[in-house]
Design brief:
The structure is a homotetramer of 137-residue chains. By secondary structure, chain A is α+β, with helices and mostly antiparallel strands. Helices cover 24% and strands 35% of the residues of chain A.
Amino acid sequence: MAVTVKRNIGFSMIDMANVAYYPRIFDLAHHVFEEAWSVMCDVTYPELVNTRRVGFPVVSVSSTFLAPLRYGDTVTATVSIVSVGTSSLGWRYAFNNQDGTVVWRSEQMTVCVDMDSMKKQPIPDDLRPGLAQHLEA
Amino acid sequence: MAVTVKRNIGFSMIDMANVAYYPRIFDLAHHVFEEAWSVMCDVTYPELVNTRRVGFPVVSVSSTFLAPLRYGDTVTATVSIVSVGTSSLGWRYAFNNQDGTVVWRSEQMTVCVDMDSMKKQPIPDDLRPGLAQHLEA
Amino acid sequence: MAVTVKRNIGFSMIDMANVAYYPRIFDLAHHVFEEAWSVMCDVTYPELVNTRRVGFPVVSVSSTFLAPLRYGDTVTATVSIVSVGTSSLGWRYAFNNQDGTVVWRSEQMTVCVDMDSMKKQPIPDDLRPGLAQHLEA
Amino acid sequence: MAVTVKRNIGFSMIDMANVAYYPRIFDLAHHVFEEAWSVMCDVTYPELVNTRRVGFPVVSVSSTFLAPLRYGDTVTATVSIVSVGTSSLGWRYAFNNQDGTVVWRSEQMTVCVDMDSMKKQPIPDDLRPGLAQHLEA
């Protein structure tokens, strides 16, 4: 079951061509990723990172930019889990604009790390049920 | 033949985990892309965009993050052309750090557009020889 | 009467010292500025910029950073108008964190411009009543 | 004696009005600040921050934006020290474009901190001669 997050496209996302600059779409996806943790696992990403010192940096990305995002657009992002390994965690994103057009798709692999050493570690057990619940084929 | 561009990793690229935040690695790749135009086609990207109103937005990306980039690292980026179509233009990037470690790889498809309408248009003929010269299988 | 806007401090605002990087606090202030238009003048900033081609770029800033912002903090921003001239428009910001600590203050002067020519122009009359209503000494 | 640093205005600095977005001018100033350390004190800012765990966050800023910066402009930044206290360190910036026009001025106060605790500390003695040499009234 996918999690849904809404965000507006702000002025600072837009470039000279009047469309969202593509690295900032990845930044927007990171905001969606951060918000997904609360919904999926009932833990905030700040709590994971600040207190538990657990992080999930991106190790691979594939993305398709299907239509431009403009200033003032509202993105409805859906995000789900596509794989849960010992340390690796796969994500799938789709962004729709206010007209229902799919503007962006991405699959991303993240890996669970100790935020102090940046060494790979197993995904903590207490996070697994929430992730499993949002797993989609 | 690949083009080589050197860049330092600045303070503002780094996140709480003391590594470059991944959307900013895409931004760094865009800087490399901008610099590549002068070398490949003897035209600056500002001239293309500002004066000729021709742009090459990204339509798809795949990337692998192989090792972290740290504050003060020096990136040697190599960039080459992997495909030249009527409107589409494929790019391949590899970033090495100062130890020679490959830290990031990416393939990106861009499409030639009119910067005012954002409509697809053929790649201008005068750019084709320079692009062809940097084409790699 | 000040307008109040709430925003969370996201991962990408934070630097190596685990505090918000100061240029991104100015970016946050711009988000607050954008949201203020709807409340103050019943017009969105996207409508002003995209449709009416009216913008308010910053021409001067003074700011004090009183305490750090951390990842996961919630900012309550208050923003009011301090001066309305023919073209110039002065703003005052205060950011509080979730403990009620004032973390940031800023006064900023903006100027009304035609977004196409970037030439100074008078503030449109229909915006003046809303701005006047949020004017504070 | 001021230090001079040259930088190009990249695509990602530019907003919908075809001018550099003002928070990114502060980011550019931070790059200049980083480069100034090598010239002034013969130590890189990465060495200060990464190895010595000494940082100089901004505590107050005043800036004037005199003319727009456009895509492809070349900035010649001059930066000097205006005050050296026990912990506080004042900076003055002026940015000129390629036509010699002063586009931006800023005075900024920074404070020396321990990067781990973010507590104020005295400016290390070995940095003082270099800073003193670049002090301007």
